[in-house]
Amino acid sequence: MKKIKISLLGWVVIAIVSGVVFGQFLPVPIARIFVTFNSLFGNFLSFAIPLIILGLVAPAIGDLGKGAGRLLALTALIAYGSTLFSGFFTFLSCSAIFPSILPANTELVALENPEDFMLTSYFTVAMPPLMDVMTSLLLAFVIGLGLSNISGTTLRDALNDFKEIVIQLIGKAIVPLLPLHIFGIFLNMTVSGQVMSIIGMFLKVIVVIFVLHVLLLVIQFLIAGGVSGKNPFRLLRTMLPAYATALGTQSSAATIPVTLQQTLKNGVRESIAVFTVPLCATIHLSGSTMKIVACAMAILIMAGEPILIGDFTGFIMMLGIVMVAAPGVPGGAIMAALGVLHTMLGFNETLQALMIALYIAMDSFGTACNVTGDGAIAVVVDRIAGMKEK
Asked: What is the CA angle 331-177-243, rounded to 5?
């Protein structure tokens, strides 16, 4: 009998439903066991986040600079610009939409101080991080930029090994335990009477983000069509097989062969396509950025916190850089973004857990938006590179 494999999204859905159901009747002493696990896991996550940032960002910046040429710089600049546009487009759109469909719930204001109204753990174990998040970001930038300008390979090799350790940590330890962590959060919120407001928010936010994803792709291909002189909707229609493949695989890397094939069908030269498509699969995450910005805004609104354009301007610009280092595992983008969410938007452990659950619920849509937009970037790069050659 063939073993049924459940995706991360499936486990998250099971965790949410189980947390709501068991929260109706589970005795408080037993529920506190899961709350204790949440406390331990949350502390370990706080310890791991600076290591994750250093291990992913430094090698990513070093690899981008290695042998950098005009085509690499052009592609990276366009990809970063697309990510920034996605972030600010999402911020402006959600600023207009969310206040009317997600009115601040006074019950959820306490999410900023969950210890005042939610179950507490039996015990805690302090796990102080080696450095704070901003220090790890600055150190990663310094080391990454240094790697891109030196010929030695010793430190580069060491950091690449460290990167593999971090990816293993995320893929083998943190991500598999996330459903249990999310179960504990929703169990605690059910016992505390908060869960129905959260579920209603999830459904509304998912619908809004899906619509914004479609609009973002239309805008990206309108720009690509305008630059290349091609029919933008024909370009977009040609990329739909890549969109469909990403929905199933939830991986930009696994979708590269289909993305490359459809990009070539859009008339992009092979020499350009084979360079831009794999590169953009790593550095262009406009769909993931949209999800993170929208989810962060929704959670802050529901928690009764103000949405300040100054805070989100810096957050979006930093998020565009952090997304370059997001590992290619399900939920990898949100794991890479947790540090920035904490330092720049003040997300505590409870808000981070809600963020993870809401993000993973739409993981495939963000990946599909990412890879489809890669086709638009390839068209633009091909056109600009052709003009420079002439």
From this structure: 20
| Whole-number Å distance between alpha carbons of 57 and 135 | 13
How far is residue 162's CA from residue 320's CA, in Å, rounded to a whole number? 23
Q: Is residue 186 within 8 Å of 19, Cβ to Cβ? A: yes
Residue 69 has pLDDT above 60, yes or no: no
- Position 154 in a domain: yes
Q: Which domain holds residue 139?
A: 8-389
> How many CA atoms lie within 13 Å of 49's alpha carbon, on the beta-carbon side?
28
Query: Considering the domain boundaries, does residue 245 fall inside one?
Result: yes
- Cα pseudo-dihedral 356, 358, 359, 364, rounded to 10: 130
Model pLDDT for residues 240-251, shown as the tens digit of each residue:
888 887 776 666
Do 84 and 320 contact (CB within 8 A), yes or no?
Answer: yes
Q: How far apart are CA 344 and CA 339, in angstroms?
A: 8
Domain count, the chain: 1
As given in the structure block, the two tokens for residue 190 are: 């059910």
Residue 36 has pLDDT above 80, yes or no: yes
3 domain-assigned: no
Tokens of 36: 């204790």
Tokens 């952090």 -> residue: 322
In a domain, 166, yes or no: yes
Task: Give just the sign of the alpha carbon dihedral 340, 341, 344, 346.
Answer: negative
Per-residue pLDDT tens digits for 279-298: 787 778 888 889 899 989 98
The domain that contains 57 carries what CATH number?
1.10.3860
For the ranges 54-68, 239-253, 337-351, which has the lowest average pLDDT?
Answer: 54-68
- The rounded distance, in Å, linking the Cα atoms of 287 and 318 is 16
**DSSP per-residue string spanning 196-231:** HHHHHHHHHHHHHHHHHHHHHHHHHHHHHHHHHTS-
**Spatial distance between the Cα atoms of 278 and 48, rounded to a whole number of angstroms:** 28
- Provide the pLDDT confidence category of residue 110 given band limits of 50, 70 and 90: very low
